[in-house]
Amino acid sequence: MGSSTSHLSKELLTEYQELTFLTKQEILLAHKRFSDLLPQESRNVEDSLRVRVSTEQILTLPELKANPFRERICRVFSTAPERDSLSFEDFLDLFSVFSDAATPEIKSHYAFRIFDFDDDGTLNKEDLKQLVNCLTGEGQDTQLSTSEMKQLIENILEESDIDRDGTINLSEFQHVISRSPDFTSSFKIVL
Amino acid sequence: MASFLLRQRSTQSDIEPPESLGEELWEEEMERICSTKVPLQALPYAMMDKRLIRHLREPDGVKTSFWEQWKKKWQRVHQQFLDVSHRLMGTFGLWKTDLYEIGGLFGTGIRSYFTFLRFLLVLNLLAFLLTSSLVLLPLAWLHSPDPGPAPNTSYHCPTSREPQPDLSQIHLHLWDVFTGRALSNTYLFYGSYRMGPESDSQYSVRLAYLLSPLTCLLLCFCEIVRRMVKGLIQKQLLSKDYRPRLSSKVFVSWDFCIQSREAAIIKQHSISNEFKIELQEEQRFLQMQQQTRKQRARQLLSYVGINMFIGLLVVGGISAIYWATKFSQNYKDESLSLLLQYLSPGVISLVNTLGPLLFGFLVQMENYPPNTEINLTLFWCVVLKLSSLGMFLFSLRQQAVLCTGRSDHSSCEPHDYNQCDQCWENSVGQELYKLSIFDFFLMLAFAFLITLPRRLLVDHLSGQFWVWLGREEFLVPKNVLDIVAGQTITWMGLFYCPLLPLLSSIFIFFTFYVKKYTLLRNCKPPRRLFQASSATFFFQLVLLLGLLVASVPLLYVISSIPSSVNCGLFSNYSVPWQVVPEAVALRLSPSAQKVFHYLGSNAFWYPVLILLSLTLTVCLSQSGANKRAIKGLRRQLLWQVREKWHLVEDLSRLLQESGGSDSLGPESPSSPSSRSRSFCPGFPCPGSPRPRSFMAGSTHSQDPGK
């Protein structure tokens, strides 16, 4: 353990403040929550910056537990090669994008990546289908029928696919989002 | 430290053949990112990539100029300042945790109602601050005479008060508080403000008293319009081509702040319902397009018929209010039974409770699409609510105005309007005060005497009826209309009862907690999804209408109705507005007077009007030109994409012809390899800058992350 303190150093805090949208309080709170997820022996400062937390553990956080997109969120923000664990910096990135102060552009960029279920850089019909299924839930009575789904997806593509290539790319997505003032307030997770 | 970016690249470069083209594009992209002025926080990359970019932007070795250093230091100070102010706001932020809890449990639609309550509270507090700082403080400072009815100088009236009933002391005081009579000699009401003649003092309290309601209303107007514009979904109203209804709903409707499992399920249900309804409406719309003329005419006729019928009902309700007010005013000073005192508020509430139920029932009979049903019912509810308040005020004023300032009282109603002890502003103020109190207690009564027992009965009793009844649904529009009506009453009473905003703020404060308790314990969430932005626009629109309903009578009174002669500040003036020209003449230098005269004359306002019309024309034509440009650009984009496909097809055909066994054939637009490149480091993206290999049989599964 040595001389490790339970607080982040000042330089590190300033650096994180520069690189994310979080305030000092929020960074410290995030660090505390992250350390709570770690096993007991790695809860000091140095280890907490190195060790990664698996996705299953992250999904136990109350802020993410009820979210149908929780696995996608963890996958998008993870920088591990297998994309199955988050480091502290990934954790900070996550809450930075979902914070109050983040710009709509960065939020829409990450929303696009979260909705892109097959990670291929655009939203095709399959992605949209999975997105709608996440939104409506698993129940029999809430899921849309095949014809309704087809109609819905056709509507979406007709409204948003400007270049008519059958998929929605990032700019088209951001174009749709920019027209909805709701987006910034609904795309928010606060610790 | 090894950057994730670089690691990605190295893995990629192991697999791919030498890719000079890719390298070039990579370098270009890196250069582009490093040279933009976008702050590091706003770059959509992982933390270690941001560090790399920061290092590339300003390597430690390079000495930054003095200007850069100074700018960085300033930014750091600015950031610290923002941090501190955020923390302070956090401690003072009213109800932040409550709002967060409600949002987590019910979503942003219902939370918008509570945010609206907070907005109204702040408005009322600011109105109160304005009035007290402009009027009350100077009044106290200048040691004016104590509030009370002014000594009668011209009519030699006996100083008798209204006869007090023969009740016990405590009961008397409480009752008088509720009717406003105990407070009629305090600063709460208009009648007790007194002031010497204008020429005596430096500070014109009269001018302040006159202008503070007007300033209040003007500031509220500006703030409401600002919020309305912010919440407006742009261009949705302007052109049919822009109709991102469903797609924006799909992308935006999930509230990421929801934390409980039940709330998530409820939200999913409501989203699913919403989609189904929208799809049904579209089908219906398509069906309607194919209707015959006769059918369409019949539909239109029934639509007009139903609206006219509801309009008649509204007119009926409003006349009931008029007669009730007239009746209660006539018999005001006689027996002080509960019924008569609160007759008008009672009738208003009755009309406003029965009305929406009737409207909903009638509209449902016609079998309109759900959106039309909701909008129609809402529209008539708003009309009913605001016009009932307007009619109430109108009938009050009718009574008061008809009977003062005339020498013969024969034109008045049987009640003996003695000119001496009548201060009609006071009585109007008292009526509004009573209405305000009645509204608040009615809200409490509904919450505790109807919703709570209903919940208890439904939870503890079993039976078909109770299951069918269920808990009460928390209807956001109805609650918003109630609160807007309360605010309209406050605005109406600004002139007659200057401390009404303070009372209103206290009521709103308690309303928040009562509504929160009702929502969390006794209600079930509404079935229909209420999107926050359209909600904001709707709230602000209704509030604006309420503001208009409140300001028009006020402006009329100030400019045309003579004030009563033996109470208040304006007793010696023909109309209250007279104070302004008098103040201008008295206190300003002749040149300033000339400026004011010019500002009030036609010669000023006609050019201003012409200028405004010109600006409006320019804006409209610019917007039209923009629309045409956008259409043209969309067409161009389509052509370019098609051209790209032709080129791809030609290229693959050429490659096929020139050899190369298994190169790719013409690809459909939906295959992954043909998408536009997007530089997305941090996640494997086939669009990332490495060339598609048309030569070797490339598979698409090279992305490490797949």
Report the biggest beta sheet of chain B as strand number plus sense, adding barrel if it closes.
2 strands, parallel
Distance between the termini of chain B: 25 Å
Q: Write down the CATH class of the largest domain in chain A.
A: Mainly Alpha
Shape of chain A: elongated
Protein name (chain B): Transmembrane channel-like protein
Keywords (chain B): Membrane, Transmembrane, Transmembrane helix
Biased composition (Low complexity) (chain B): 658-682
Organism (chain B): Vombatus ursinus
Short description:
Chain A: Residues 103-138, 148-183 form the EF-hand domain. Chain A has 191 residues and is mostly helical.
Please characterize this protein's 3D structure.
The complex is a heterodimer of chains A (191) and B (706). Chain A is mainly alpha-helical. Chain A has helices at residues 10-19, 24-37, 45-50, 55-58, 62-65, 70-77, 88-97, 104-115, 125-136, 146-160, 170-178, 183-186, and strands at residues 53-54, 85-86. Chain A has 2 domains: 10-97, Recoverin, domain 1 (Orthogonal Bundle); 104-186, EF-hand (Recoverin, domain 1). Chain A contains 12 helices and 2 strands, in the order αααβαααβαααααα. In chain A, strands 1-2 form a two-stranded antiparallel sheet. The model of chain A has no long low-confidence stretch (mean pLDDT 86). Chain B is mainly alpha-helical. Chain B is 67% helix and 1% strand. Chain B has helices at 4-15, 20-35, 47-57, 66-92, 96-106, 108-141, 169-179, 205-231, 245-252, 261-289, 293-330, 338-341, 343-365, 370-402, 424-460, 464-469, 476-492, 500-522, 532-560, 579-587, 590-600, 602-658, and strands at residues 472-473, 523-524. Chain B has a two-stranded parallel ribbon. Chain B is globular. Chain B starts with a helix and ends in a 48-residue tail after the last helix. The chains are: A mainly alpha (191), B mainly alpha (706). Chains A and B meet through helix 1, helix 5, helix 7, helix 8 and helix 9 of A and helix 3, helix 4, helix 9, helix 10 and helix 19 of B. Chain A: Pfam families: EF-hand_7 (PF13499).
